[in-house]
Model the fold of this input.
Amino acid sequence: MSDVHIVAGDLEMLAEDTKELAAQMHETNIEAAFGDAGGAMPGATSVATIITTGETMNQRKSAVSNEYDDFSALVVETVHDHQSNDAMVGDSFRNVQASSDRMQSLASRMEDLEKGDVVSSLEKGDVVSSLEKGDAVSSLDKGDAVSSSDQRDLASRLGQG
Done:
Protein backbone atom coordinates (compact mmCIF):
# COMPACT_ATOMS: atom_id res chain seq x y z
CA MET A 1 0.00 0.00 0.00
CA SER A 2 2.95 2.31 -0.38
CA ASP A 3 1.30 3.81 -3.48
CA VAL A 4 -1.67 5.10 -1.45
CA HIS A 5 -1.58 8.83 -0.83
CA ILE A 6 -4.29 10.26 1.40
CA VAL A 7 -4.64 14.01 1.50
CA ALA A 8 -5.89 15.71 4.67
CA GLY A 9 -9.67 15.69 4.61
CA ASP A 10 -10.02 12.78 2.15
CA LEU A 11 -11.18 10.30 4.77
CA GLU A 12 -13.62 12.76 6.28
CA MET A 13 -15.05 13.40 2.80
CA LEU A 14 -15.28 9.63 2.14
CA ALA A 15 -17.17 9.14 5.42
CA GLU A 16 -19.59 11.99 4.65
CA ASP A 17 -20.22 10.89 1.05
CA THR A 18 -20.80 7.28 2.13
CA LYS A 19 -23.19 8.40 4.87
CA GLU A 20 -25.10 10.54 2.33
CA LEU A 21 -25.31 7.61 -0.10
CA ALA A 22 -26.66 5.37 2.68
CA ALA A 23 -29.31 7.97 3.54
CA GLN A 24 -30.41 8.18 -0.09
CA MET A 25 -30.61 4.40 -0.29
CA HIS A 26 -32.69 4.27 2.90
CA GLU A 27 -35.18 6.68 1.31
CA THR A 28 -35.54 4.62 -1.87
CA ASN A 29 -38.42 2.13 -1.74
CA ILE A 30 -37.85 -0.55 -4.38
CA GLU A 31 -40.81 -2.58 -3.15
CA ALA A 32 -43.20 0.24 -4.02
CA ALA A 33 -42.14 0.10 -7.66
CA PHE A 34 -43.21 -3.55 -7.82
CA GLY A 35 -46.40 -3.02 -5.80
CA ASP A 36 -48.44 -1.94 -8.81
CA ALA A 37 -47.80 -5.18 -10.66
CA GLY A 38 -51.03 -6.74 -9.41
CA GLY A 39 -53.10 -3.81 -10.67
CA ALA A 40 -51.36 -3.76 -14.01
CA MET A 41 -51.75 -7.48 -14.57
CA PRO A 42 -54.92 -8.65 -12.83
CA GLY A 43 -55.07 -12.40 -12.42
CA ALA A 44 -51.48 -13.00 -13.59
CA THR A 45 -49.69 -15.80 -11.74
CA SER A 46 -46.43 -13.90 -11.72
CA VAL A 47 -47.79 -11.08 -9.55
CA ALA A 48 -46.87 -12.88 -6.30
CA THR A 49 -43.35 -13.55 -7.59
CA ILE A 50 -42.93 -9.90 -8.62
CA ILE A 51 -44.07 -8.65 -5.21
CA THR A 52 -41.75 -11.13 -3.43
CA THR A 53 -38.88 -10.03 -5.66
CA GLY A 54 -39.54 -6.39 -4.74
CA GLU A 55 -39.58 -7.26 -1.03
CA THR A 56 -36.31 -9.21 -1.35
CA MET A 57 -34.61 -6.40 -3.27
CA ASN A 58 -35.78 -3.87 -0.68
CA GLN A 59 -34.36 -6.01 2.14
CA ARG A 60 -31.03 -6.35 0.34
CA LYS A 61 -30.95 -2.63 -0.40
CA SER A 62 -31.57 -1.93 3.29
CA ALA A 63 -28.78 -4.31 4.26
CA VAL A 64 -26.34 -2.60 1.88
CA SER A 65 -27.32 0.88 3.04
CA ASN A 66 -26.80 -0.25 6.66
CA GLU A 67 -23.35 -1.51 5.66
CA TYR A 68 -22.61 1.91 4.16
CA ASP A 69 -23.70 3.54 7.44
CA ASP A 70 -21.41 1.20 9.39
CA PHE A 71 -18.54 1.82 6.95
CA SER A 72 -18.96 5.58 7.29
CA ALA A 73 -18.88 5.33 11.09
CA LEU A 74 -15.75 3.16 10.94
CA VAL A 75 -14.00 5.68 8.68
CA VAL A 76 -14.80 8.46 11.16
CA GLU A 77 -13.52 6.26 13.99
CA THR A 78 -10.35 5.54 12.01
CA VAL A 79 -9.77 9.27 11.47
CA HIS A 80 -10.17 9.92 15.21
CA ASP A 81 -7.86 6.99 16.05
CA HIS A 82 -5.26 8.31 13.63
CA GLN A 83 -5.47 11.81 15.09
CA SER A 84 -5.15 10.42 18.61
CA ASN A 85 -2.22 8.18 17.65
CA ASP A 86 -0.55 11.04 15.83
CA ALA A 87 -0.83 13.20 18.95
CA MET A 88 0.61 10.40 21.10
CA VAL A 89 3.51 9.88 18.70
CA GLY A 90 4.21 13.62 18.78
CA ASP A 91 4.15 13.57 22.59
CA SER A 92 6.46 10.56 22.62
CA PHE A 93 8.99 12.27 20.40
CA ARG A 94 8.86 15.38 22.55
CA ASN A 95 9.45 13.19 25.62
CA VAL A 96 12.36 11.45 23.91
CA GLN A 97 13.86 14.83 23.05
CA ALA A 98 13.45 16.05 26.64
CA SER A 99 14.99 12.82 27.94
CA SER A 100 17.85 13.19 25.49
CA ASP A 101 18.45 16.75 26.70
CA ARG A 102 18.42 15.54 30.33
CA MET A 103 20.80 12.70 29.48
CA GLN A 104 23.21 15.13 27.81
CA SER A 105 23.05 17.36 30.88
CA LEU A 106 23.68 14.40 33.20
CA ALA A 107 26.56 13.20 31.00
CA SER A 108 28.10 16.66 31.20
CA ARG A 109 27.74 16.64 34.98
CA MET A 110 29.34 13.20 35.18
CA GLU A 111 32.29 14.45 33.12
CA ASP A 112 32.65 17.34 35.58
CA LEU A 113 32.54 14.90 38.50
CA GLU A 114 35.12 12.64 36.87
CA LYS A 115 37.40 15.67 36.42
CA GLY A 116 36.92 16.56 40.07
CA ASP A 117 34.99 19.71 39.24
CA VAL A 118 32.13 19.10 41.70
CA VAL A 119 31.38 22.80 42.19
CA SER A 120 30.90 23.32 38.43
CA SER A 121 28.56 20.35 38.35
CA LEU A 122 26.58 21.72 41.30
CA GLU A 123 26.23 25.12 39.64
CA LYS A 124 24.49 23.50 36.63
CA GLY A 125 21.22 22.80 38.36
CA ASP A 126 19.08 20.43 40.27
CA VAL A 127 21.92 18.36 41.73
CA VAL A 128 21.92 20.66 44.75
CA SER A 129 18.55 19.33 45.92
CA SER A 130 20.07 15.86 46.21
CA LEU A 131 23.00 17.25 48.21
CA GLU A 132 20.84 19.16 50.66
CA LYS A 133 20.04 15.85 52.32
CA GLY A 134 23.51 14.84 53.31
CA ASP A 135 27.01 15.25 54.47
CA ALA A 136 28.66 15.81 51.10
CA VAL A 137 27.85 19.51 51.47
CA SER A 138 29.74 19.75 54.76
CA SER A 139 33.04 18.86 53.11
CA LEU A 140 32.39 21.44 50.38
CA ASP A 141 31.48 24.08 52.99
CA LYS A 142 34.85 23.57 54.67
CA GLY A 143 36.65 24.20 51.41
CA ASP A 144 38.34 20.82 51.65
CA ALA A 145 39.34 19.01 48.50
CA VAL A 146 36.84 16.34 47.63
CA SER A 147 38.39 12.91 47.45
CA SER A 148 37.64 10.53 44.59
CA SER A 149 35.70 8.30 47.01
CA ASP A 150 33.54 11.31 47.95
CA GLN A 151 33.03 11.97 44.24
CA ARG A 152 31.91 8.35 43.70
CA ASP A 153 29.62 8.64 46.74
CA LEU A 154 28.18 11.88 45.34
CA ALA A 155 27.73 10.28 41.92
CA SER A 156 25.92 7.30 43.43
CA ARG A 157 23.61 9.62 45.41
CA LEU A 158 22.79 11.38 42.19
CA GLY A 159 21.95 8.08 40.54
CA GLN A 160 24.96 8.23 38.29
CA GLY A 161 27.13 5.48 39.66
In short: The radius of gyration is 37 Å. Confidence is low (pLDDT under 50) at residues 126-144. Residues 15 and 71 are 8 Å apart (CA to CA). Helices lie at 10-27, 30-35, 37-40, 47-115, 118-123, 127-131, 136-141, 148-157.
